[in-house]
Amino acid sequence: MKLIVFIISLITCSRDALAIGQPASLVFTETIGALKLSDTGSALPIIIDTKDWPGVVHAGNDLANDFGLVTGTKGKVTTSTSGLSNATVIIAGTIGKSSLIDSLVSSGKLEVAAIKGKWESFTSQVVSDPVQGIQSALVLAGSDKRGTIYAIYDISEQIGVSPWYWWANVPPKKKTNIYALPITKSQGPPTIKYRGIFLNDEQPALTNWVRANYGKYDSRFHAKVFELLLRLRANYFWPAMWDSKFYVDDSKNGPLADEMGIVMGTSHTEPMARADKEKVKPWDWKNNQNNLKKYMQDGLTRAKSWETLWTLGMRGDGDTASPTLDAKSLVDVINYQQSILKSTLGLSNLSGVPQMWCVYKEVGGYYQAGMKIPDDVTILWSDDNSGNIQRLPLPSEVNREGGAGVYYHFDYVGDPRNYKWINTIQLSKTWEQMHLAWQRNATEIWIVNVGDLKPLELPISHFLDMAYNMAPFTSPSSTDTWLNAWATREFGLGVATGTAEAMATYGKLIVRRKYELLNRAPFMLSTVNYDEAENVLNEWGALQNKAQALYGALDAETQIAFFEMVLHPIMAGRIVQQVYINAARNSAYATQKRMSTSKLADDVRAAYAQDAVVQKRYHGLLNGKWNHMMDQVHFGYTNWQDPGSNSMPSVKTIGTTAPSAGILGVSVQNSAASTPGDTAPTLSGMDPYTPENRTIDIYARGSGSMEFTITPSVSYVKVNPSSGTVSYPSGTSDIRVTISVDWTSAPPGSSTVVISVTPKTGTPVKLNLPLNKLVIPAEFKGYIESNGAIAIEMQHFRSRTPGADGSTVEIIPNYGRTHSGLTLMSSTASTQTLASAPKAIYSFYALTSSSNAKALVYLSPSFNVNPSAPLKYAIALNQASPTSVSPVPSTTLGTMPGGWSDSVVNGARVVSTNIGKVDPGKHELSLWLLEPGTVVHRLVVDLGGVQSSYLGPPESTKLGF
Ligand SMILES: *[C@@H]1O[C@H](CO)[C@@H](O)[C@H](O)[C@H]1NC(C)=O
Ligand SMILES: *[C@@H]1O[C@H](CO)[C@@H](O)[C@H](O)[C@H]1NC(C)=O
Ligand SMILES: *[C@@H]1O[C@H](CO)[C@@H](O)[C@H](O)[C@H]1NC(C)=O
Ligand SMILES: *[C@@H]1O[C@H](CO)[C@@H](O)[C@H](O)[C@H]1NC(C)=O
């Protein structure tokens, strides 16, 4: 009976109690056997032993406050049960620190076997008659300090207080009734031992905000950050460093971290808990060793009694290589650091002392040179600053005592270009890389550079949720599931699906190119081919409309949080896209002598002005709570570094004098020509399967107005509109005519139709439109060629086959620039051979023939994380023998592989492989994935018709899907 109740309540409550990815222990409607916690008007006592950790009391006070936010009546932290006759209470405490918890354990009322002695674990249980006079209590017992703290914040999150209630203004979800289920919930230890964030590149936004609110990076500021981290179940922190000194700026900073339960670290360039700004000069181990030693010893002495993960090694000044350091002297540095750790901490060995050495930039070169690093030091592998992990533990490195970890970036200052304005992270990509890191046992430390923190709420939550517990993240589709849970927690069930879709789409749009890189010449999107520039702008517009509609459905309080985390990045991002895309279109229109060139110039100016309006809106929220958080310059980059101020791209205007060639101009897709003047272009061909609509643009090239008619030479081709007037400056300067074909009436086979655009005065422009009426066999399932190209999205395979070892190719939804990714699972599968590898088959139907067709394979810009097992795939047409490709050139650790810069700028590495002769008819393209970590996110078969564009042709028409 009890078991049934238990299962039913879990099902009914799973949507109510929102702790992302974690089982619920509370419900909000009366449930058999559940303990009522909230009671109108009386404060819920939260009992914490006087001897327990101060950090536990701190969290307990937050929980008491959270009950107030949710029910209107705050809880009350007390140290004893006396005077609480018959009340319902929460008892929170740490095994070995709380006499109350210890007595419940020894009397057999509390079962802690599942967590005792484990790292950061807790159990929560409803206990009857826990102490004299108390009928029932919800008991939260932690295995250690943070175990208890996480147990407490778990209740906060479940009752409806988001970890982001302060940092992103997520309103607490009001409730009148809260019940604890009669279940035992045990959680921990976390998947990753040390999980945290690095505040970096914090000028101007965060620093200006801190100055305005706290004067400097003081303990009041850090209390807010630490609380957020603990609510997000993180435990590790690298402080801001460019113009601050954590331990010096406020002498309360160090003790506060320790008291609240945060393990302090320092960045890769700041050894022994000292700040970069405290460095002795010259910062030179070879020539100034005694002073450097003293500097390190002093840092250790200062922080020795606080929980610290010691950063070892050293780099040069200001995030650069040290000119006098080599692999041998770096070993001396580390030996010295370990010797003072032992002497200062009074230990004979350092096996219980967390220490890390970060293989960042040039440091990789020392490791590559054979540098031996003590076994008890965690090796912290780095990404390339753009989200691609450079290296992971090799089989020979997985059994090191100190293990390994990952230093990752959501924000960066440096090559190829800074990105520090707003969120530019594709969550599915983060999942793919961190899942790989987890599987390859880089599980000791995950730390992520989060820039100013504030604009990166979403990727921070995602990263830390994975680090805490990877169990719900084993499937490639877990990102979407998580996004739904995240959106439900922050904004409620009503908008969750839409919000999750919107943010998954945002990830795809932004992984194409970061905002700061949008002006890198040549302009990335084609203003000519495939209507690419306009289509991309329309995608952003549709996304913003969707976000705006979701926003409109929310109450005023929730709208603020939604604006900060969803609507703002979408809206502000769309504006930057509009500025650059329409500036490029403006330039193309000027060449075509369109009078509307000036309208596009106005549009660019208006969008650019809108950017400042949206910034102001953000800064004005809640009476300026987040003023300065959007101070970052984001327009007008010319190299990797920030420009001094925003600047609008230049735009052209056009005079009003009619060119001699006539005031009515005609242009078509896939051609830059403007006729008369340029030779009339041939329209791209159409068949019943063509994925895009054909259009003709008719526009004013001078002042005045001009009537026109447009007539196809046959009746089964229709144009809409078939006549009109273009005029300038008043009236309609540009008219887009859509062509459609009534295929039932069209003759079979190839034909050419002439479409005449006839101005009232002047010569008609005659456009040829090639048609091809064909019928694809009904049983065909797959893609149809269009104008010499087949563009394939990975999810739409015809079939797939597992590998001999049970490995499979799997879809990562919403991955890459357009649709989805194809990856090899499991991530620990060994290198596959062609004979036994899993594969996916994509079928296509060719309409033309090509003697040397090519397959363009779009890959993520990932690295060969194991240099002796480089990323690899193979591709073959039909029964041809497969071509194996290792797309990423080998490189030495610390240097970037060939093609790296373009691949991270473009969000894709594109590799072309000849696939031989293709005849009209159906074909199969097989793709084998031969090494885990290889992710393909698009395939384009080029039969000679692929036009230059950034994303490639739009997805071809597919049948049978
Ligand atoms: C204690 O509480 C229970 C249930 O809330 C109630 O049935 C009982 O009468 C109370 N006892 C006293 C002494 O108030
Ligand atoms: C390291 O020192 C601890 C006590 O500080 C001791 O218990 C442990 O056995 C030592 N380990 C080794 C490998 O010497
Ligand atoms: C990771 O560590 C576990 C436990 O030590 C081990 O069983 C597994 O083989 C390791 N994985 C890899 C990829 O080395
Ligand atoms: C083509 O036009 C039709 C009818 O106007 C429209 O429904 C469809 O969305 C258009 N397709 C594209 C790719 O624009």
What average pLDDT do the residues reach?
95
CATH fold description of the largest domain: TIM Barrel
Please tell me how large the radius of gyration is.
31 Å
Q: Oligomer, anyone?
A: single chain
Total DSSP E strands: 38
Question: What's the topology here?
Answer:
Layout: H1 2-13, E1 26-27, E2 35-36, E3 45-47, H2 54-71, E4 76-78, E5 89-94, H3 99-106, E6 122-128, E7 136-142, H4 145-159, E8 179-180, E9 185-187, E10 194-198, H5 205-214, H6 219-231, E11 236-238, H7 246-249, H8 253-260, E12 263-264, H9 289-303, E13 310-311, H10 327-345, E14 355-359, H11 363-368, E15 378-382, E16 404-409, H12 427-439, E17 445-449, H13 457-468, H14 478-491, H15 493-511, H16 532-552, H17 556-591, H18 597-620, E18 664-668, E19 694-700, E20 704-712, E21 717-720, E22 723-728, E23 734-741, E24 749-759, E25 765-773, E26 782-784, E27 789-792, E28 799-801, E29 808-813, E30 820-825, E31 839-846, E32 850-859, E33 873-877, E34 883-885, H19 900-906, E35 909-918, E36 921-929, E37 935-942, E38 958-959
Parallel strand pairs: 3-4, 3-5, 5-7, 10-11, 10-17, 11-12, 13-14, 14-15, 15-16, 16-17, 26-31
Antiparallel strand pairs: 1-8, 2-8, 6-7, 6-9, 18-19, 19-23, 20-22, 20-24, 21-23, 24-25, 26-38, 27-37, 28-31, 29-30, 30-37, 31-36, 32-35, 32-37, 33-34, 33-36
Helix pairs in contact: 2-4, 6-8, 9-10, 12-13, 14-15, 15-16, 16-17, 17-18
